[in-house]
Amino acid sequence: MAGLIAGALLSGRGYPSVYATTGDRLGYLTTQPQALQWAGMLHFSSAVPLAILAASLHARLHRLGVRAPGASIALTGGIIAATALMLSGLLQWAMSRHGQADATTLVLHDLTFLTGGPGHVVPLGLLVAGVAVPGLLLKLLPRPVAVAGLLIAVIAELTTLALLITEAAYLLPVRFAALAWLIVAAIRLPADRRQISSAPAATATPDAASAF
Known about the structure:
mainly alpha; 71% helix; disordered C terminus
């Protein structure tokens, strides 16, 4: 959010969509190096706490006795999502250095969208799903929270369609819902097995979560 706001304040206009006209895209990308640098730096930096959160949630799930693939899927999704976000930020910074109205700038802009859009949101959905599924099956999370996480994860995976269907890009802001959900999940997950409200149910159903 800070990257988007900083870019808008420094440039006096919104960051151009990859679906905008070539003139609009190049007009911004070749004249707003400071906005691109700040946005790139902030997007790059935001990937660090995301990676830390993914590792922390993975460790928490293991401490709660989750040995199914879900915990590893969450970690893998989080690391990929953080890496894609870092790459998107670095590409934004690279555009600020180029400053030429040619195809290279447009390609960098497309890559920034791909890595910060579907390339980030799809694995972010895996992180959410990797926490929500065992949270639901083992009753580690309140049912409404877990179900909301599953819905967010499904929408995040559907952003893959943005590679083929322009309108699917409207699903990309689900990233903000995913990040908010992860914060809620981190707060609501028990610190250890002693805090699980329904210990018999949680300990009796680990095989039910073995598929995820």
